[in-house]
Predict the structure.
Amino acid sequence: MQKNIHLGIDIGASNTKIIALDEEQQVFHRLLLTHMEQEASIADRIAKHIPMEQNTVCSIALTGVGAYQMPETLFGVPLTRVHEFQATGLGGVRLSGLSNALIASMGTGTSFIHAKDGEYRHIIGSGVGGGTLLGLSSKLSATQEMAALEALARKGDLSRVDLTIGEIAPDGHLGLAPDLTASNFGSVKSNVTQADLTLGTYNLVFQAIGTMSVLAAKTVGIQDVVVIGTLAESAYARDMFARFSEAYGIRYAIPKHAAFATAYGALLSITA
């Protein structure tokens, strides 16, 4: 049966995220293109996964840093460009069901958007993100493939990399949990392995983003943080943000389709 579909495309610095909705605004397809895969045209890649002869593209929303380097049409359909902050904020709150939240978008870097009652304000951004993780990890192993890096990290031992609170204050006078990190890469042992260093890199990136999310949330006086972006679907994300929630009383949500939230928000901006 012929379907009318709508495409949201988020062209980032490292990946392109594409989400397709059907006429009932239900998610019909998701597609993640890595930087190398973008060497082929986006149209060719989409057509490979979504047969165009069986579907009619009715609208296309475009966002992200690469949005303005695209042609004016795709599949003969005019492209509507949506500001990235609006797309990020709208996608985050719609997927989470919240109306007032800090959206932590973990892409190549990380941006923090305050979404409240249909308004989207950029609070702060950081260069620490997926690009940091892949860049550092690529020097420690032979791959930049995220699944392979996570598998390697799971074999690591943080005690051979990081300095903990318990090591610098064994008497507990600081009142902090002894297993908290006092210094990332502050206690690299002589017997450290690639797996240890990769795990240490994951820990550094997620702890930095977690700390920034707490400060940004407190700046705008809210307790809800919605985590989106490609890193949000890492197995380490839920564990790390659960620890930050316990330590600082912030409520973290990682919604379904988190990696595609900005593409989804762009599409909702023109179809909802």
